[in-house]
Amino acid sequence: MDKDIKPVTAEERARWPKTVIVTPPAPFADARGAIQPLVDVDMKSCVLISSKKGTVRANHYHKTDWHYCYVLSGVIDYHHRPTGSSSQPEVVTIRPGQLFFTPPMVDHAMVFREDTVFLTLGRNSRAQEVYEADVERIHLADAP
Questions:
Q1: C-alpha separations of 118 from 6, 14, 51, 84 in Å
Q2: pLDDT at residue 144, as a whole number
Q3: Domains of the chain by range and CATH?
Q4: Residue 25 pLDDT > 70
Q5: What is the secondary structure of 112-130 as a DSSP string?
Q6: Rounded to the nearest 10 degrees, how much is the dihedral formed by the CA atoms of 24, 26, 10, 79?
Q7: 82 pLDDT above the threshold of 80
Q8: Which candidate in 21, 27, 103, 128 could, as Cys together with 34 as Cys, close a disulfide (CB 3.0–4.6 Å)?
Q9: How many other C-beta atoms lie within 10 A of the C-beta of residue 103?
Q10: What is the C-alpha to C-alpha distance for residues 100 and 83, in angstroms, rounded to an integer?
Q11: What span, in angstroms and rounded, lies between the C-alpha atoms of 16 and 6?
């Protein structure tokens, strides 16, 4: 295993969300506005991704990486199933203001219904060599 990729522990796995959609904690609000907590766990990457309507991202699974995604604008049809399964993937529609979670060893693809911008917060570094050492490409979904 790459030195920058640590193995997943049972303790870590026990803390993962049990559902795709994650309800964030209540925001901290006062007269100045609000601060919305999204994710409060150790992580190594945060990326801002923009995707064009009718395109597909992912079509892969991660061996150890997980990611939380927070949709800022647009709509994603998120396809997922356990890695190794031959069943049809479940599809969850994700909208602005929603947070969702993908654990390791879950086949997933994102189909963009409209131009979309989202944040991805990940366990592992997003350095290309680290990312490629942990990802396995598959075919789960096509562009509409």
A1: 26, 26, 9, 27
A2: 86
A3: 10-26+34-137 (2.60.120.10)
A4: yes
A5: ESS-EEEEEEESS---HHH
A6: -10
A7: yes
A8: 27
A9: 22
A10: 18
A11: 16
Among the listed residues 20, 43, 35, the one whose alpha carbon sits nearest the alpha carbon of residue 98: 20
pLDDT tens figures, 35-51: 999 999 999 999 999 99
**What pLDDT does 59 receive?**
97
Q: Which residues contact 132 (CB under 8 A, 6 or more apart)?
A: none
Is the pTM higher than 0.85? The answer reads yes
CA distances from 66 to 70, 108, 143 (A): 14, 11, 24
The encoded tokens of residue 35 equal 């601060």
Tokens of 119: 């944040």
Secondary structure E strands in the chain: 21-22, 28-30, 33-35, 45-51, 56-62, 67-73, 76-82, 90-94, 99-102, 106-112, 116-122, 135-137
